[in-house]
Amino acid sequence: MQNLRSPLVPRNTPALDAWRRELQAGQRTRCSFDWLWRAACEEMNALEAPTPALAASYFRHARRIVRAAKKGRAA
Question: With 70 as the cut, is the pLDDT of residue 42 above it?
Fold first, then answer.
């Protein structure tokens, strides 16, 4: 497991947390594939990444997906 104390690696996973909340509340299924699912997957990839640099790139991609969704376009 990577060193999550690295300054490159954020400690929070807002998309993954939101995806889990919606799944728990029954607002989505595991088969609801949308921007939130994509961003949550990137955050999960970051948590499982073997290096801090790779984790940082996954987190950046997750943030790009969320920003694009807020603007109403695909990332």
Answer: yes
Give the domain range for residue 44. 14-70
Token pair recorded at residue 56? 């940082």
Which of the 8 DSSP states describes residue 48?
H
Number of structural domains the chain divides into = 1
For residue 58, give both structure tokens.
């996954």
Rounded distance, CA 21 to CA 4, Å? 23
**What is the Cα–Cα distance from 9 to 26, expressed in whole angstroms?**
30
The tokens describing 54, both together, are 């790779």
Per-residue pLDDT for 1 more than 50?
Answer: no
Per-residue pLDDT tens digits for 15-40:
999 999 999 999 999 998 999 999 99
Task: Identify whether the C-beta of residue 47 lies closer than 8 Å to the C-beta of residue 55.
Answer: yes
Q: Is residue 49 part of a domain?
A: yes
Q: In angstroms, rounded to a whole number, what is the distance separating the alpha carbons of residues 63 and 35? A: 11
